[in-house]
Specification:
By secondary structure, the chain is mainly α. About 75% of the residues lie in helices and about 0% in strands. It is built from 20 helices and no strands. The chain is globular.
C-alpha cells in the first residue's frame, strides 16, 4: 500500500461511512444523484489506466486489423469491453477493500517468494511497455523530422517534471489531459464515412481459417489485458485516498474507461479499414509512419499527420506515465520502501529513483537502434505469455484475500474463472504463434 503523508490526497468528505445508505453495505443502494456526485470526486484511476491501455502497441494492432481484414475484427472490440471491465473491477475491489497494493497483497496471502515472482513479471512487462511507447514517440517525431534523441529526451524531461513536482491528483489530471488526445481517432473514424453495409458484411464473414486472422484475434486480446494495468489501478485507488465506500463510483469509473478505450481501438480499426483496407487489402502495417498514411485520404497529408500525431502521443505518453509509476509502486510493495506520490522525491528517493531508471532504460534501448517493428512484436509476445500468471493471481486473490462481503463467489466466480482461462489460453496462443511465426 502506498504510504501516505500530510500531502495525502485522501477524500474524507466522501469516504465517511454512512450507517444507513453506505457502500460498506453491499446490499445498500446509493441514490443516482449521489453516485454521480461521488463519481466526479472518485473518477480518475479507471480512466487513466484504460486510456493507457490504448497505447502505441494497441494502436498498431488495431490498425493492422483494419488494414489486413477490414471491419471483420470490429465485433471483437465490442466483446472485449466486458472482459476488460471484469478484470479491472477485481483490482479495484481488492485495492479498496484491503488497502494493499497487488504485490503487497500477494505477499501477505501467498508469501514473499510468490510476490517476487509476480513483481518480477511486472517489471519485465513495464520495461516492455516503455519500449513500445518510446518507439511510438520516436516514430511521431520522425514524421516531423525530429531526431529520436530529441523527441525521447524531451519526453523524459516532461515526465520527470510532472511526477516529481506534484502529488497523485496532479499526475492524474495531466495523464487524463494527455490521454484525451486519443479521442482524435474517434473524430477521424467518423470523418472516414465507413460503410454500415460493409461493416455488417465483414462481421458476418469471419475468416477463421486464416492463421493470420487468428493471430490478430489473439493479438487484440493480448493488447487489452496487460500486467501493469492490474498493478497500477490497485495502487492508484489507494494513493488517491479512496476506500471501500467509493466502490460503486470506482466501478463506474472503470466501466466508462473500458468503454472509451475500446471505442478508440474500434475507431483506429475503422479508419484504417476505410482507407488502406479498402484500397489495399491484407497490407501489413507495423510502423507509425505507415499508419499515419491511413489518414491522408481522409484529412489530407498535413492535417492527417497532425491529428494522428496528437492521438499517438496521447496514447504513448499516458501509457508511459502509468507503466513507469506501476514499476515503482510494485517494487516498493515487496521491498517496503516509501512509494507514494504524496511524498516528495527526497522523502521517497527509491520510489522516484525506480521511476526514473525505468524511463532511462526504456529510452536507452529504443535509441540503441534496435528494429522497432521486431521490438513491438517481442513485447506483445511477452505480455501474452505472462497472462496466466497475472490473471491467475488476480483470481486467487479475489477468492482468498477479499473480506467476505466483497469476496468473489457464487455463479459470478465461475463466469470470471471462464474469462480468466479463456483469455489466458488465447494469450498463450498469441505468444506461441508469434514465436513460431
Amino acid at each position: 500500500m502506498p504510504a501516505q503523508s500530510d500531502k495525502s490526497s485522501a477524500l474524507p468528505s466522501v469516504g465517511t461511512p454512512q450507517p444507513q445508505n453506505s457502500a460498506l453495505n453491499p446490499q445498500a443502494s446509493v441514490p443516482r444523484l449521489a453516485l454521480w456526485k461521488m463519481l466526479l470526486l472518485v473518477a480518475g484511476p479507471g480512466l487513466v489506466v484504460m486510456l493507457a491501455d490504448t497505447d502505441a502497441g494497441s494502436v498498431i494492432t488495431a490498425a493492422q486489423s483494419g488494414a489486413q481484414f477490414g471491419y471483420s475484427l470490429l465485433l471483437l472490440q465490442v466483446l472485449l469491453v466486458p472482459i476488460l471491465y471484469i478484470v479491472q473491477e477485481l483490482t479495484v475491489r481488492l485495492g479498496l477493500a484491503t488497502q494493499k497494493g497487488h504485490g503487497e497483497l500477494i505477499s501477505a496471502t501467498f508469501g514473499k517468494a510468490w510476490a517476487w515472482l509476480s513483481v518480477s513479471t511486472l517489471m519485465v512487462s513495464c520495461i516492455g511497455a516503455l519500449l513500445t511507447e518510446f518507439a511510438g514517440i520516436e516514430g511521431v517525431g520522425q514524421l516531423f523530422g525530429i531526431a529520436p534523441w530529441i523527441s525521447v529526451g524531451l519526453t523524459i524531461v516532461f515526465l520527470v517534471v510532472v511526477v516529481g513536482t506534484g502529488g497523485y491528483r496532479q499526475v492524474e489530471m495531466v495523464a487524463l489531459f494527455i490521454g484525451l488526445f486519443e479521442l482524435a481517432f474517434i473524430a477521424v473514424a467518423v470523418a472516414s464515412h465507413p460503410s454500415p453495409a460493409a461493416m455488417i458484411t465483414a462481421i458476418g464473414s469471419q475468416p477463421i481459417h486464416d492463421p493470420t486472422y487468428l493471430f490478430l484475434i489473439a493479438g487484440n486480446v493480448g493488447a487489452v489485458i496487460m500486467p501493469w494495468m492490474v498493478f497500477y489501478q490497485q495502487s492508484a485507488v489507494i494513493d488517491k485516498g479512496l476506500n471501500i465506500t467509493h466502490l460503486k463510483a470506482a466501478r463506474l469509473d472503470t466501466a466508462i474507461g473500458a468503454l472509451i478505450t475500446q471505442i478508440i481501438m474500434a475507431a483506429v480499426l475503422i479508419f484504417t479499414a476505410a482507407s488502406i483496407g479498402s484500397a489495399h487489402a491484407h497490407v501489413s502495417l507495423n510502423t507509425v509512419q505507415q499508419i499515419a498514411t491511413a489518414l491522408t485520404p481522409i484529412l489530407g497529408s498535413a492535417w492527417g499527420r497532425l491529428v494522428f500525431s496528437l492521438g499517438m502521443l496521447g496514447a504513448a505518453l499516458v501509457a508511459t506515465i502509468v507503466a513507469s509509476l506501476t514499476a515503482a509502486w510494485g517494487l516498493g510493495e515487496v521491498t517496503g520502501y516509501r512509494r507514494s506520490l504524496a511524498h516528495h522525491p527526497f522523502e521517497a528517493p527509491w520510489f522516484y529513483g525506480v521511476y526514473l531508471t525505468c524511463l532511462l532504460v526504456g529510452a536507452g534501448i529504443v535509441l540503441s537502434g534496435v528494429n522497432l517493428v521486431r521490438l513491438t512484436v517481442a513485447v506483445e509476445v511477452m505480455n501474452a505469455l505472462l497472462l496466466p500468471i497475472v490473471l491467475g493471481f488476480l483470481f486467487l486473490l479475489a477468492r482468498k484475500a477479499l473480506p467476505e462481503p466483497w469476496r468473489l463467489k457464487g455463479p459470478y466466480a465461475w463466469v470470471v474463472a471462464f474469462i480468466v482461462i479463456l483469455t489466458s489460453v488465447v494469450g498463450v496462443y498469441a505468444g506461441i504463434a508469434g514465436l513460431w511465426g
